[in-house]
User: What shape does this take?
Amino acid sequence: MKSLGKVLDIASPQGLLTSEAVTKIKQQGILGVILRIGYTGYGSEMPTMDKVFEHNYKLLHDAGINCGAYYFTLAYNDTILKREINWLEEQLGKKQFELPIYIDVEAQAGSKGWTNCSAAVRTANVAKLCEALEYQKYYVGIYASKSWFGSKLLESQLVAYDKWIAQYYIKCTYGGVYHMWQKTSSGYAPTYGIHTSSNKIDISECYYDFPKIIKNNGLNNTNKQLEVTCPFTGKTCKPV
Assistant: This one.
């Protein structure tokens, strides 16, 4: 497959983006950025906003850079699943996204409930979460490593959803259908104006024109104006 461009994914470890970083991201010709919007904490089992999401989304969105989002699920029972669905519908409804909304299914360290539940339960709840978001007209995908897709999920029950495969290798050897390949977690972050203690960033290749498909179908809130800014006062409000 021919890549249409590189995609970065950014969360709190990369910190708050600066205007310099946004400029460098644009200069590098990046197709877009997928931001971690949040996660379910393995201790509290409650949805939690990533502390840099709002800031980074605004800078990127205002600069016209395509944005997507990913959420770290731990929905091993119906209670957590309902919390995640309600939280995501509320938070996503406030933003527009030109790239998909991905459900990250790889377990956090310490989450025994998620790692110990059966593949059948895990798969069923991921599918319910994706279905709920699709019903709200979001383009939804699933993120996991090749090994997770092969051992921790029942892939035959998830064929309806786009895949974002993590495999740090010279090529992606996943045998199913996918449109994003996370090929490294060791990209050089300063290239994009991002400076951290490790100076590393995840880089993916994208093989599908998500912005075109999403916008043409009015998905991910791209068909509505969420707010307007008064040119005189600078205040924002929702249109009547």
The first helix runs from residue 19 to 27. The CA atoms of residues 141 and 162 lie 4 Å apart. The two ends are 45 Å apart (CA to CA).
